[in-house]
Amino acid sequence: MELTDVLKSRRSIRAFTGRQVEQEKLQRVLEAASCAPSAGNLQAFEIYVVTDRSQRLALAKAALGQEFLASAPVALVFCASPARNVGRYGERGKRLYALQDATIACTYAMLAVTDLGLATVWVGAFNDDAVSSALRLPEGIHPVAMLPIGYAAEQPEATPRRPLDDLVHSL
User: Fold this and answer.
1) Domains within the chain, CATH numbers bracketed
2) Which of 5, 35, 124, 135 has the maximum number of C-beta atoms within 10 A of its C-beta?
């Protein structure tokens, strides 16, 4: 797909078929995420690939009951790794840049998912401690976003967007 087509065709999908995600496609999604720019190229993020159903159920519970997380065959959990940035960027790198790195990587993954004919939705509503506990995340690694990935069992219409003249401000 052309990039513009990917951007315009992406939808937030919360219903998945039972079809498994091919390993080659998952690998391409992870490779796309690894191409994301990061502050100082320090890549202050980690990606956890969750295929175990019981762990996906724990993620769904941690995500305030968003059960579709468990119905997707794969969930990616993007985490900030602030310690990677502290040496070069100090407190700002720890507080902000690692978060930005994780979100950019998650966005790249989301667009790759769409390009490959798969489906996902950005999940940001969750209890951090519950996600950390469910995945036994190491100290200092903080969950930022989750992407359940699978084949769409729904095809929602595009949602309205703000007009550019309301969104963009020229100075």
Assistant:
1) 3-153 (3.40.109.10)
2) 135
Q: Which amino acid is at 143?
A: P
Question: DSSP 3-state assignment of 164?
Answer: helix
Nearest Cα residue to 144 out of 163, 131, 162, 157: 131
- pLDDT (tens digit per residue) in 135-168: 999 999 999 999 999 999 999 999 999 999 999 9
pLDDT digits (tens, 9 = 90+) for 8-37: 999 999 999 999 999 999 999 999 999 999
Strand partners, 77: 48, 146
Q: In what order do the strands lie in the sheet with 142-150?
A: 45-50, 74-80, 142-150, 119-120
In degrees and rounded to multiples of 5, residue 154 shows phi and psi of -150, 160
Alpha-carbon span 106 to 144, nearest angstrom: 9
Strand partners, 120: 12, 149
* Predicted TM-score (pTM) of this structure: 0.96
pLDDT digits (tens, 9 = 90+) for 72-83: 999 999 999 999
> What angle is formed at CA 162 by the lines to CA 108 and CA 38, rounded to 5 degrees?
25
Backbone angles phi and psi of 27, in degrees to 5: -60, -40
Place of tokens 């990616």: 76
Percentages of the chain per state (helix, strand, coil), in multiples of 5: 45, 15, 35
